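Checklist before submission:
- one chain only
- standard amino acids only
- sequence pasted in full

Submission:
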Amino acid sequence: MHDFLQKKFTTGQFAALYGVNKRTLMYYDSIDLFKPAIVKKNGYRYYTYGQSGVFDAIQLLRKLRVPLEEIKKHLVHCTPQKTQTLLYNQSQMLEQEIAELIWLQRVAQNKISNMEANLEMDCSKIEIIESKAQAIVVSESTAEMSMEETMKVMLKFMRDCYHTRNYCGYPLGYMMDTDKVLQGDFCQLTNYFYRIDEKNSKAINWTFKPAGRYLVSYYRGSWAEMDPTLQQLSDYANNHGLTFIGHAYLESILDDTTAVVEDPYYCEAKISILLK
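Returned file contents:
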């Protein structure tokens, strides 16, 4: 048995046994993490079957995302208790990574679904639709703020949604006071919002975009030239005896990962206003 464990392998042969790159073993040797069992005077290096247990441990710890320097220290001062602590810590870290990956997968899936649902839109159409309540998370109010202050609120809101994983892959939305819309004032936003998945959200302050009848229009062009479309909605409501309540919601149709290099201010948006 002892003779079998001492069977010698060159660096390339030992690497092939484990399906790793030869350079990996050479690097481990250079940092004194895992060195050959035998180094001859001519410089030839040999590994043995007897080293398999240690190399297996290194490979496992690497898969568990343990840094090489920490593995090196652990192997020098290894005890069952320290190994248990190390594995527990890595298990906690992996649990966080899994949660992050599940969130990112949901973001990607929602982006795909949202883009598929909005492949076609008729910019000439104004319609009244019945909409179910939608869960949203809303920024602090930006009413009466300067443009610079409004921008700071938006960036903080976006950052907070990403960091708390309340961002679900849907484009950023904008809210306006309907009284302002009726008065022809289309410059002042009251809030920013993200649509969220109610069942998956951990947001404390989420609310609903109310259910009900909405006057809806679609816009394609520069953000700076959206006013005529908003005016058309206001005129349509006046001409048909419709009353706005609550907020106007401007929802981007283009995904925020879709870059329009020729015109960074280009947008495609759905504009909906709740009716009394």
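Reviewer check: Residues 80-117 form the longest helix (38 residues).
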